[in-house]
Amino acid sequence: MEQLQGVLDTAWNFVVNNYTHVLAALVILIVGRMAAGWARKLTRKGLERGEVDATLVPFVAKLVYYAVLAVVVIAALNRLGVATTSVVAIFGAAGLAVGLALQGTLANFASGVMLLIFRPFDIGDYVDAGGTAGTVMEIGIFSTTLKSPDNIKITVPNSQVYGATISNFNGYDTRRIDLVMGISYDDDIQTAIETIQRIVAADERVLSDPALQIAVSNLGDSSVDIVVRPWCASGDYWPLRFDLTRQLKEGLEAAGCSIPYPQRDVHRFQAAS
What we know:
SH3 type barrels, alpha+beta, Alpha-Beta Plaits, five-stranded antiparallel beta sheet, three-stranded antiparallel beta sheet, Helix Hairpins, 3 domains, 18% strand
């Protein structure tokens, strides 16, 4: 009890002897807190006008708020005569220690901020990021959630996503389908090309611009390979690919062309006795 009373007396004497500094420090804290609130509001409005991702707006606004508040507290302590240099040094050392301990987490955080700012992909896009492919379900501060075609939830650290090559299959409105149809060496190439042209052109999902490309691409071991490259809307890619694969196979067979199996001719020579 006596120790508590001694502390209170010391604090009271300090206030009485330095009341002007104490009042100035209180004014700095009050005005500084108001300034921090204004800075947070201005930051939020600026980010919202800049169409920054909604996930990032409150986080950055709070970061600005606490940064301004930290400067205000240091200024108030300096007004009271506290050696702020040592305080800043302590906070700096603590920040360095925390940064070293959480460097992986901080890397994910920094990558998450970059993903939310530059937006290499959006929710609903199908992407391949660092060897992991799936539909983007959520872009968080520390990780990105994907859904695989067989409905598996995949959580990928943002540092792995942003630090690797990102292939966004929905990045453009149109995509090209690459199909290779093999016909026998005995089949008529022109007949096969005309058949392919007719089947592909009959599908309304195939775009006229860019133009359809059909060409002989390779003379294989057992087939003449014809490459078929139609363009379509990105959303029609897989349905159109599946439909064309079946229709071209059936159409070529109906036109008298055969789809050869891989085969090899073996010649047997009998040695003279």
